[in-house]
Amino acid sequence: MARLLAIEWDEREARVAVATPHGEEVVVEDAFAIDISAAAAADAADDASQDDASRDDASQGNASQVGRCIAQALAARGLTGGDVLVGLGRTSIELRSISLPPAPPEELPDMVRFQAMQAFAAISEDWPLDFVELGAQDGTLQVLAAVVSPKQVEQILRVCAAAELAPRCLVLRPFAAASLLSRGDVLAEGRNALMVDMLADGADLTAISRGQVVFMRTVRRPATDDPAVQARALVGEARRTIGAAQAQMGGQRIEQVIICGSESEHPELMQALADALSLEVVRFDPFRAVRLARGLERQLPADAGRYTPLLGMLADVAAGVPHAIDFLNPRKRPVPRSNRQRNVLIAAGSLAAVGVVVLGVWGGLKYLDRQIADLNAQVAELDKQVAAARELMADVDAVSDFVGGDVTWLDELHELARRMPGAEQIKLNDVTITTGNVKRGGVIALKGHVQNADVIARFEDSLRYEDHVVRGRSAIPDQKSADYPYALDTTVTVEPDTYDRGRSLGRPFRDKLRAAADADTPARAPTGTPDADADAQPAQTTEGDAA
After folding, report:
1. Which of 251, 357, 450, 535 has the fewest CB atoms within 10 Å of its CB?
2. Do residues 201 and 12 touch, judged by C-beta distance below 8 A?
3. Domains of the chain with CATH codes
4. pTM of the model
5. In sequence order, what are the residues at sequence separation of 6 or more whose Cβ sits closer than 8 angstroms to the Cβ of residue 428?
6. pLDDT (tens digit, 9 = 90+) per residue, 111-152?
7. Where are the beta strands (DSSP E) in 326-383?
8. How many CB atoms neighbour CB 303 within 10 A?
9. SS3 526
């Protein structure tokens, strides 16, 4: 997550705090001070010695010098560029308490600015103005308004630009410190307190009533290093601040004094305030109100109380709490709602209704598309099963056709072997038995080689018995074998067996053939050769299909 950077500066130093958000709280990783006294002193000298026009040009240059000084210190710690939260001291702004009649919240920004134009001595419409509500009293609403000069804002922006930083807010420092104080356990709920935040050459005195800042002052410290002298001076300023704050609080009294700082800071001031004011004086360590990284926890910066506003700004941003006074993002009148927005909402509602209908129709069509896709997938799967079944049926039909041919093939093969010439005259290479293209019966295909053409004629003529149809090709010379120089290619169409009441009686001429075989007299088929064109063509088979 991106780091958060908070910064504020005075004439002597710039203070920086770096943190990383974790949920709604921050982990402070570093806090340090940058000495800018040389650049600030040059700025003050130029302002005192030049006229207005020259002073503006010199201020721009000195602001850039301060910014570059800050940029160098940040770069040395690896902190370059990015957004920054900027704190602004009480001495840079003007404050007024303004009474307003009861009004809706959206009208308050315009009413406050209207009253501020009369309450403040010399401001114009371009002055940034922000305010906080202090509550209702005697039928009127009390607000605390703050304005800052545009030139002051411009100078702050120049410093940030020279430091390569982009300010995202410009927060009044006492409000940021009070915000952090409310997160600690020092200020009891409902109590009124005076918060003292010691600066390099002064102190912020802030009166807090029920957690809300109601009055604030920034006072100068005596130009001495004697803590006792400084303590006596601040006691007098604290008395005057308490008196002014209690007059503005409607008679309520300050009950507690809270000094920002670590355990070792400002012991003389705490004792002097306790003795002079007869009030409870407690210490608030700002670094105990936030989570610290291990490196910072081991070595905290000196003058810890000066970092209270910076830590308060970081905690507000992490928690998503708007800053009470922010001159870059002041409270403004809300943009009034127009009929256009209403019409847009109506049109959007109508479009949404139409969209719902269209979505419903589209959803229905998509559902039907899914159903169609599922059914197509089922059909494709069933087509695969049908194709497999058809292949199986074709195989079954082939077997059925072969079996249904009703031929006793052993008898046929026996007779074929008996009528075949001797091995010196014929050599068979392939014998294929199929159903052929006939519904009943079958076909025997013979392929081989013979010694001479007369052997083919005699062999084919011997196979024409009992209505067998024999067809063959003329003797074709084939020089592959010297002993069998002619090719044999003959098909025999065989009639089916004789059936009686569904039972096969076998070959109708079987007995006669057997008698002939016993007499060793070959049975001769009737003379003549059937018309070859009237018979079915033999089936084409391959070697190895012999029955």
Report:
1. 251
2. yes
3. 1-94+150-184+289-335 (3.30.420.40), 409-534 (3.30.70)
4. 0.60
5. 420, 446, 447, 448, 488
6. 999 988 888 878 888 899 999 998 887 788 989 999 999 999
7. none
8. 18
9. coil
